[in-house]
Model the fold of this input.
Amino acid sequence: DDDDVVVVDYDAALAAATAPPDGGVPTKVVGLYDHTHVFWIGDLNYRVEADNELVRAAVAASRYAQLLQYDQLAVQMRTGAAFAKSDGWVEEMPRFAPTYKYDPESTSYDSSEKNRVPAWCDRVLYKGGLGDGGKRLFYARAELLTSDHRPVASGFRVGLRIVVPRLRLAVYRSIVSHLDKLENELAADCELESQAWAFGATSYRALRQHKVVLRNTGQVAAQFRFIAKPNERTICKPWLAVRPAAGILLPTKSITLTLSVFVAGRTAHALNARAMAQQVAWRRRRDAEL
Done:
């Protein structure tokens, strides 16, 4: 019914403005509020909820500010029901007569049987500020008689952030360089005081040990551990032991690693068997050469 006061379905309109195009599923949905500046323009169909005679008398006397307390949009902006001021929405007070509803081809408000109350149905709102040096230049209506509405126009000066490709590339390279430097500085770095150890001759059941210092020379904590060589299950031979085999070193700290050689029992048998196998192979090769 045309007599019903129709209020714009703000939530539905906002949802439509943030929906993926054509029902697609993009990797990121760009919503209305993802933009720096937002302008909402149109016939929002808000009405003035006041006595018709009171409204027409105030309009005739150009007392527009008096009517804003009854304007549905102004009320909803204050209460936060739609276009909430707390969300940053702005509409400067209209300083022109209500734009709806006029008799066709006339400057007179509705004189039909329905006798509608004059209202500001056509509005221009903005959100997000207008940037550096930005301002609203004008907010006015045009006196065109071809519709039962009077069209509304508004002009803005908006300060925009402009991306300069050359400068953006320079900033990007600077950031990448800085991150590379941080990655190198914060990488774990340790060093052994020696890379080779000689235990010399060893005897059955005679323990021989060698100590070496592992030092954290980096700027972050370092986790270390000995690992097995490819195709081997253990980190060292049965007759060799490393203690500790794993640990964590704080920056500038060090730890003493102990390498122990101990031949006994099965390890001795394995070493002897290997030595005998090598001796037999040498003798066979020698006999073959002779």
